[in-house]
Design a protein that fits this description.
The chain has 8 helices and 6 strands. With 258 residues, the chain is of the alpha/beta class. The protein has 2 domains: 2-221, Rossmann fold (3-Layer(aba) Sandwich); 225-258, no CATH class. Helix 5 (106-115) links the parallel strand 3 (92-98) and strand 4. Keywords: Oxidoreductase. One of its GO terms (molecular function) is oxidoreductase activity. It comes from Rhodococcus sovatensis.
Length: 258
Amino acid sequence: MNILWVFTHPESRSLNGSLRDAAVTHLTSSGHTVEQSDLYRMGWNPVVDAADYGHDSTRRLHVDTASSDALRNGTLAADIADEHKKLRQADAVVLQFPLWWFSMPAILKGWVDRVFIEGFGYGIRRDTGGTRRYGDGLMAGKRALIVTSMGGSEHTVSERGINGSLDELLFPIQHGLFWYTGMSVLPPVLVPSADRITAEGYVEAESLLHRRLDSMFTDAPVPFRQQNGGDYDERFVLRPEISAGESGVRVHSSLPGA
């Protein structure tokens, strides 16, 4: 299988860097092909601007229109076009990053902003009418996995932990990026207490990551509800009989108790 590994950490000798290197070696030795986007090493530009689309700077920039026109006309910036090629070829996408301020680092957000443009990540019409999103995007058929680390313990991102549950923290990425564009979302891999990890703890983290990678194409994905699967009304609001009396991000999954 072809796997795109998007790595986001400024230090390649970090815990994250060591886990990435071990994971890539493990995957390739298992017969997979791994393409990497090491954003810091690439010097990735995270800022959307008119140059991304060959847009005339004397004219007002409408990002959605300019990006879709550039995609259609083949005038996208070369670095964006390269990432599109990697994504099209990938059977699975892994985003690896440290959890900074409850989200992804800015450079990774900039990768998302510049790469998932109209006509590629959103704004894609169905032949039968309506828009393809939430389980029905161009990335349908691919699998997606987050590998993340945090300084706090795993207890702080439990259901009643002070930081909120991990699934809630990652909902904008897992549901709003992966699932929105059609990718099947796998439960994330978390390495907690990263700044205090011991040698034994590293071995455990590496082993966990390898096990999850080995089952990446067989594990059951998170059962997010499809936009066009009948659970939502014409306003894209969850029908009242589904998860009646409940609210919040968990109602958009069909997990037991959601």
